[in-house]
Amino acid sequence: MLICGSYTYINLCFVLLNGTLRCKMWYAALIRFIRRRLVLGIIFASSLTYCIVSFLREGNSRNMMYQEILIERKPFVWRSLQEHKGANDSITCRNSVQGKLLLVDDRGYICQRTDVMKNGCCDPLSDYSQRYNCESCQDNHCCVVYEHCVSCCLEPSKRDLLELVLSKLSAEENVLFRTLTDDYELCLTKCRTSSHSVLHENSYKDPTHKHCFGHEPPRSRTPD
Amino acid sequence: MGFTHYSFLLIVVFGALVYAGTEGFDLDGSCNATDSARVEYEYNTDVVSSEHIITFKGYFPRSTRKKYVTAALKNAGISNWTILQRNNPAKEFPSDFDVIILKDELTRALDALRDHPAVRRVTAQRQVQRTLKYVQEDNCGRTGCVYTGWRNHRARDLNSLRRPRENGFTSRKLLRTVPRQITSVLKADLLWSLGVTGEGVRVAVFDTGLARNHPHFGRIRERTDWTGENTLDDALGHGTFVAGVIASRAECLGFAPDADLHIFRIFTDNQVSYTSWFLDAFNYAIMRKIDVLNLSIGGPDFMDHPFVDKVWELSANKVIIVSAIGNDGPLYGTLNNPADQMDVIGVGGIGFDDRIAKFSSRGMTTWELPSGYGRMKPDIVTYGSGVRGSSVTGGCRSLSGTSVASPVVAGAIALLASGVPRQHLTPAAVKQALCITARRLAGPNMFEQGHGKLDLISAYQFLREYEPQASLSPPYIDLTECQYMWPYCTQPLYYSAQPTIANVTVINGLGVSGQVKDVVWHPHLPNGVLLSVSMEYSEYLWPWSGWLALSFTVLEKGVDFDGVVEGHVNVTIESHGEVGEKTMRNTTLMLPIRARVIPVPVRSRRLLWDQFHSLRYPGGYFPRDDLRAKHDPLDWHADHVHTNFRDMYRRLREHGFYLEVMGTPLTCVDTSLYGALLLVDPEDEYFPEEMAALKKAVDSGLSLVVFADWYNASLLRHVKFYDENTRQWWIPETGGANVPALNDLLSMYQVNTAASASESHERDIDAAMFSIARFTKLIL
């Protein structure tokens, strides 16, 4: 680069002041200077250093994490192993908050909004409460109802599948899944519609069974 | 590649011979005929001339495709060509197309390629460029900013643009000094002095990113990139500015300096973004339990179900979403999604002179057309013109756009959120606080200003003492109140008219999910009983909101009544409260109603506007009426007399005509009541039953006025384009208007319009009116 640049400059100078002796002399002196071995060596060495440094920096940045999260990370825990024990009133639950009519708590109980107790848990004694409900789910683990998806996903027999899903996601370094702390959060997040759910960016691949917890995306209803 | 393009303004007037009355369309007095201008439409500017796309009949590996191309061109004796290498992850897989660069003998080479049995077609490579509504100051002239490039049609844009000044110079006025800090205009310093600074509130900024060490910011909790560009920094300045208005703590101050910022980089440096990126980023925002989310973005596509559903899901998870209403003003009916959603706080822009900024999108929502009527949006307005905020280089700069107004509101919410009890922070409560306390501006109507101008201090006081409640938006229906209740106030009700519909939004602060239990109309004596009110409402109020549509008709006993009728509607709402409450919360809201009723006008003064055959936001590709608008090839404006045809509406009303909107098929309407049926720019087709009904109606005295737009089969083939957002080719379904459908309709009168098209360039109301007058007179 450097060498080429100076030659261009010299040529330019030569053309501009073509014929004047002064420029010729200056030009000849410069050429002599550049042809010195030491100068050539310095130019070569600096180019090489620059080349190596930029190459290394490029290599580094490829492995660099491009997400910057200052919130401390908690390790992933499989909650289903440490079952909620004891009386119902001593525990508190997280629930899925968003539902129009249904909610699902972190124990896998699905219930109507009116059957949620003060501690956030579904009342397991209520008529409509059900644990690990896969009612609207297909065999590809895609469900019509979001709450069914989460409830079904929390079933202990799905543990192997979830581990597979989780390992796949951690391999992708997916920022969404690096911040998960337990299987309930994994199920809540995995069941939401995401980039895997859309076809042509503005429609669902499968408009009915769009909530999936498995590792395969919904089956496309319309031909590609 | 020079195509000949015509844009057709097609006016056919069908006058009935037994046309009643002598008044006719007496319009020529005030309407000056304007000569129709010629369209100078250059389409080929976007074509990359040397590059062509070869589409194969199947998916082949790279080597096979090359073999086919070589074979085809070898036979034609062409050697000077190269295939563009596409270095993307898909290159290892079979593909069905190649991009070829041809140096010479273009036509011969293209023919040879087309002849090859494995080639489906060869098309010109087009450069599709996408721009945001964000234009350099020096590009803006007096008439506003000109977009460059081609905006992809379903795309979302960043809603910001810079303009040197707002409204031109209409009259002399005192120029107010623009205050230095937006925060002091809204009296945020008053809250700061109380120790309310936004602390502990998680604010997400979905934008173009933010630099790590920007001197204006203190609490950037995380920065995430969703674009795959491997950078978190802002190269455009949009994201920095927006974040600055919310939380800057130096120089140009933001509202909530101590709020926790979560920066989501969702637009690339080239301003590209996809729905799928948004979905993943939104999921992350839910997981992070974001309190306030600012979306200074918008797009026309409210039919993008995955996106719309996801925004609902966010609201249901108690994320307060603030979004810019759009920069497509002053045209009506141009609201952007997601700001036009009921659960989102849609923000319009005003200047420091308290006038609606010219760029701010306005008009009712168009989701509900053709059978219903749009909702009131934006929700509130605030300063969006010439606001100072953080610059990407570290200093301050001044920007305009609804992108600026949106973070003003988002920052204000973040500020008040830190000063009120946590349980008061729901999307509905905050929206109620902002809307109920907003100060109404004198002049603009409700489809321009919503509830009015943001009043931060009053909203703070409201939210501090908040009791869970439901509210209605607008809070009353006074069909006589001009200017605020435009367009209702411009045309009184009368017996036998098509129903006048008011669409009220229910904001339910009682809980995320609820139901409308009962809606009852209580007429006030003596005249309220003349009015009939029928109601339709959403099945569930979810998330935090729902709609309530009221249709007003005058009963037969009011056929000769002239005066004002009053009454009120009681709306009973039942809702699930906090978790753990076994009983449902109940509330009854009162919606006062007032309307003016007149005796039925004569038939010749009554016009029927066909809304039913005009499409709202289309499912397919319907090219624009104005072909010069290349930045946005898709016609996404639902034509309505109260949106983009409002000038026509105004003119017709000025001339004493009564306009009724037909949102049902022609067969459902008693056409014998009307002087004329207006078919303006229809995109849809007509059913045989409708044609028969129309023929009968015209035979018995109905005039038919048809305004159509361009339609040209060869042009239609050429305006197809490849859309990067949906990754597919978009081929137009019809022209600016569906002329073949009109021809079908008119064929019973042996009229064929396609050949008799005249060159024109836009729906010029004066020219059109003149033509009607002329035709009608000829016929009369």
TrEMBL record, chain A:
Predominant location: Golgi
UniProt subcellular location: Golgi apparatus membrane
Annotated keywords: Glycoprotein, Golgi apparatus, Membrane, Transmembrane, Transmembrane helix
Membrane topology qualifier: Single-pass membrane protein
Transmembrane segments: 38-56
Record-linked PANTHER family: SREBP REGULATING GENE PROTEIN (PTHR13481:SF0)
Family note: Belongs to the SPRING family.
Protein name (database record): SREBP regulating gene protein
Source organism: Chilo suppressalis (Asiatic rice borer moth)
From TrEMBL, chain B:
Domain Membrane-bound transcription factor site-1 protease-like N-terminal: 47-126
Family matches, as InterPro entries: MBTP1_N, MBTPS1_3rd, MBTPS1_4th, Peptidase_S8/S53_dom, Peptidase_S8/S53_dom_sf, Peptidase_S8_His-AS, Peptidase_S8_Ser-AS, Peptidase_S8_subtilisin-like
Catalytic residue positions: 207, 238, 403
Residue ranges annotated for the MBTPS1 third domain, each copy included: 473-599
Statement: the UniProt record of this protein carries the keyword ATP-binding: no
This protein's UniProt keywords: Hydrolase, Protease, Serine protease, Signal
Record carries keyword Protease: yes
Location of the MBTPS1 fourth domain: 601-753
Sequence similarity: Belongs to the peptidase S8 family.
Protein name as it appears in the record: Peptidase S8/S53 domain-containing protein
Organism annotation: Chilo suppressalis
